[in-house]
Write a structure and sequence with these properties.
301 residues, 8 helices, 69% helix, 11% strand, elongated
Amino acid sequence: MTFDWVGHRRIFYLISAVLVVGSLLLLATRGLNAGIDFTEGTLLERAFGRMVSETEVREALADPALAGADLGTPQIQHLDGGRSLLIRVRALGPETIATIDRVLEERLGSVQVLRTEVVHPVVGKELLGKALIALGLAAVGILIYVSLRFEPSFGLMAILTQLHDVIIAMGAVAFLGWEVNTSFIAALLTVVGYSINDTIVVYDRIREARAREPKLSPAELANLGIQQSLRRSINTSVTTLVAVAALLILGGETLKVFAMTLLVGIVVGTYSSLCVASPLWVSWTQWLSGRSGRARQARAS
């Protein structure tokens, strides 16, 4: 006896509604904590006389001498094999930058100033606009691909499912209050790609089942497709989550938002592929069938 996934769809819809509405409320009230990639900030490229680690630099930037400076969450990128670093912080004045250089030299040895630049808000808005365009193009591409491979109703439900996943992933990061940067957008696009892959597998099973047994109802087809995809989806998600969890734990401060977004997105994407995408298709198909039936009755009368 198999589980009646479609029969319990109202429970799944309720869970999704709570998560989506909660995420939208968080995004509307708290919003995303935009990092310097999307706001005004300062780029500091510094060379050191020895190899330095990201942890050493973060500890230096936490020095009491910089307690009054609003650095935000520094983003640190190794250059030249680790002897030079690119540090991204919030917009700073000349005095604060001089203090940073002094603290770095005291803690890490000789420091050579290679570059100091200010990222203006205009650049940040341009990056955000391009990121939103990338998400929009991804959604359009998914709609076209799924509609051509299957049917338009599958494509529409797939887009709604991806929107569901992205909103919840964004809501989780808004709840945590972590700074987001361009890697966050990359994580969202990865979540969309991962989730649509799972959804397409389920839809493919439904299509195969409908070709073999055309007399089955949409609900029966959906239950069959989900059941046949269940083990594959869970196994794939668990193995991926192990790698993402390791990235979250060991990847350091720079990768934590990227890894957390992936972690939430994969969990929610697996859930939506099994419990939301196909039940939505069933509800949509039944609604269309009922509407066409009422139209026929109206014409007959």
